[in-house]
Amino acid sequence: MGINAGFSLPSMRMPVDKYGKTTFLDFQTHLYLRRVTFDLFSHVFWGQYLNNSHDILSSPPRDGFYYTRPDIRAYAVNAEMNYNFNYSRFSFRAPFLQDEWQKRSAGSFFAGGGVYWDGSDADSSFVPSGMAVPDFYNDINFKRWDWLAVAATGGYAHTFVIDKRFFIMLSAIGGIGVGRSTLTDMDNRDYHTYSPFYKLTERLGAGYQFGRVYVGATCVNMDMLMGAPPDGTRIHYRSGNIRANVAYRFSLNKEIRIFPGRK
To answer: What is the mean pLDDT of the chain?
Structure first.
């Protein structure tokens, strides 16, 4: 049984006057079973800023500030499952859940698949007025985009163990599939295209075990890339998390059964 809480440090929060205000609801689940790994990335973000404001706008904000859009909402639900071919020697549970201890270096291949739904909408066109780039997105003033894709996945993960206590874990699971991408313009006209879909999930972890105490950090990141309806355009979407972990293992005097009556 584990209890986790996540929060953002004040030093990591971007100034509202420069970047605008962002609120979010982020729910991620990573289920690490002995043979199967299941990932669910889902979130809703309100409020965005244009990172390259000074390159793409003819009249950008003053230096150090960005074009902001508090009305833009981004959402995602991405689910993926992969099989661990070397589950008897390699463990994702050791770095991410700390309820196992991998004492020897080992790796494993993974294979599986997933379903990916991502999108964003706004009260007005995503394309700001005063663009310095001609024919941006073929002059489609769109207020909504989304994609729905399926993909087959595969990759490799390896944990390097030093002196049975210190470890570094590296993992990359890529995927390729096909999906449908849609843009909706200000007149509620839809533009559709079917195109290849690419994704890559990277996992990094490092930690040290001493006695009943574990100290470490992990990172999970998912990158996705897919074409958009205007020829030659594409959308890149990214989601992930970074965690620092300090864990202490307790000894129980008696067994705890989550489901009474079952062994």
So the answer is: 86
